[in-house]
Design brief:
two-stranded antiparallel sheet; 5 strands; three-stranded antiparallel sheet; alpha+beta
Amino acid sequence: MALFLSTFTNKVDRKGRVSVPASFRTNLSAAGQNGAFVLYPSPHYAALEGCTVEHMKELSARLATLEQFSPEHDELSTLFSDSHQLGLDGEGRVGLPEELIQLWEPEAYAAHKAAMRERMKENKRTIPAARQAVTA
């Protein structure tokens, strides 16, 4: 799975294209994605989120564990219907579909990030330890 680190602020050009950072392009290539990735509106914030095609397949498999017509399944299925598989052009840019050109405004992102750091500190959040295989 590709790992994307850091934060970048890029402008969308007149044609709806935005440059993808070189480190992201390198990670997509190393993950065997050939520049393909998925973007979707965040289910929690006024922002776009993205991942590799392989990660979307994993999420789809997890969704399949829910009852097909349950409220949870219906709600979470919108993640897939709102998603767009995109590819890079020869200059490392991606063309955003019109409905995705709602990128997070930098000041709103800075306020969100500060709030998340404060909540993490208050709630003493940590990333779970890696699970150890149990042998019998």
